[in-house]
Amino acid sequence: MIGLLLACGQTELSRGSSNIIQGSPTIIIGAGIGGLVSAVLLATRGMKVTVLEKESRPGGKVRQLEVDGAPIDAGPTVFTMRSVIDAIFESAGERSEDHIRLHQADRLARHAWGPEDRLDLYADADRSMEAIGEFAGAKAAAGFRNFTKEAKRIFEILDTPFLHNSKTYPPGLMWRIGLWRVKALIDIRPYESLWKVLKEHFDDPRLLQLFGRYTTYCGSSPFQTPATLMLIAHVEAQGVWAIEGGMSALATALEKLAKSQGVVFRYDTPVARIDVHNQSVTAVELASGERIATEKIIFNGDPAALASGLLGDDVTPAVRKVPVAARSLSALVWLANCKTSGFPLDHHNVFFSPDYPREFQEIRAGSPPSAPTAYVCALDRGTGQTHELGRERLQVIVNAPANGDHHIYSTEERETCTSNMLARLSACGLELENPLPHRLVTPSEFATLFPATGGALYGRASHGWAASFLRPGSRTAIRGLYCAGGATHPGAGVPMAALSGRQASEALLSDHISTRWFHRRDIAGGISTRSVMTNATG
Q1: Exposed / middle / buried, residue 257 (Cβ in 10 Å: 0-12, 13-18, 19+)
Q2: In the 8-state DSSP scheme, what is residue 506?
Q3: Of 297, 322, 278, 218, which Cα lies nearest the Cα of 483?
Q4: Does 533 score more than 60 pLDDT?
Q5: pLDDT in tens, 93-121
Q6: Phi, psi of 211 (to 5 degrees)
Q7: What pLDDT does residue 389 have?
Q8: SS3 (DSSP) at 391
Q9: CA separation, residue 403 to residues 321, 356, 470, 488 (Å)
Q10: Cα–Cα distances in Å, from 353 out to 116, 211, 356, 381?
Q11: For the chain, give me the number of helices (H) and strands (E)?
């Protein structure tokens, strides 16, 4: 699980240096997407890898919970940037399509503001532009065309030098982009808010909401994030896929791939601390008292756990502590297996608040929104599986403040939040079974799952031009300790977590390994063979 205490199931040993297991494998703490990717890529290079996980299964935030006998996805549901995952399988000489069944969506999402106030966006940009024209007029369609061009431009500038590369600071980014490309640096628009720049493209407040909402993919407010983040819209427009079996099927496939490369997984026993000597890692200590000697650790959890001392005081200098005010959004997540009626649901659906600024003002003040925007994933639609009218599995998400470490949602507050969410769906024409059989996960539960975060699901919020540079990178201030996951560079979401896992493995190899130390294997993708060999040999 991406979080703190993660671990094992081998023979329990008493505490003390005499109990250190010989062999010094690379230890990955956490079997989230970033940890799974790191495990695969390191193993393909012949490294001995052990993954320690506190839960009983892989996935981290990618997980399922049972409601009324039905397993329902309780984590990420949007799968983009398929090429990132394809490359991981290719690194092991496999094809992703032989391990997971994907269905590319023709319709990216269905959006609603009222019973008859709906807009669909499509994988075909021309079709989306036509739909926007019919919805809001020719000027809005032209604005969409210009918006998509600008979003694509920003993505292309940052894709290789920032998203697919290790963390850097502004001077380093300038160097990667090219010091002579001054216009490119201006074009990414880091000093203007997304909301302000969206107004250059759209007059219709509904379209401002729609395209501003993409910042919530990284747990941030469109009123505080830089316009750079419009690149998220371009990423989604390049393709959205549904995975048969849900996102958990991806985690299971990556675990199987890692095992085929010799990776050892140990579930259900927490890691209590990371030992450090002379600013270098020396071992991990499990909650059982067992210690495993190692000089190489990838922490696939929220770095806030390191900075807060939850894995020992020795590793608190590893990363900067995220101020409470800088936390990303948390969420209220309803999981239901229920009857639906009225609204023609697609796989991804968004029901917008009547007052978007107020929604984020309330969250910033520490309260769940009274009239929230609600995202509904109809898990049984668009996946190639037969959907029968009647009961269906839903995941409903409403943004909430990351205050779960000091605010517990009472029964009355949970009922109020549920009522507010249902009222928003009903106002747009969607009726759910009443009373609604459901399970509600609040920021309080997320704070328990991911210690030291307050329930923040995306690490540091992307507020202000410097936020992306303050997010922890692969390397830490402790030698031999690396970070991977959605709270590290390059950011939140399944593909970004996968990229962080790749970058952590590359950093570890570069710092610690000469390619002559292990068996050479062909690499078809994932890690660049040339870069690894060059870095590892100096």
Answers
A1: buried
A2: H
A3: 297
A4: no
A5: 999 999 999 999 999 999 999 999 999 99
A6: -85, -20
A7: 53
A8: strand
A9: 16, 21, 21, 20
A10: 15, 14, 6, 24
A11: 17, 20
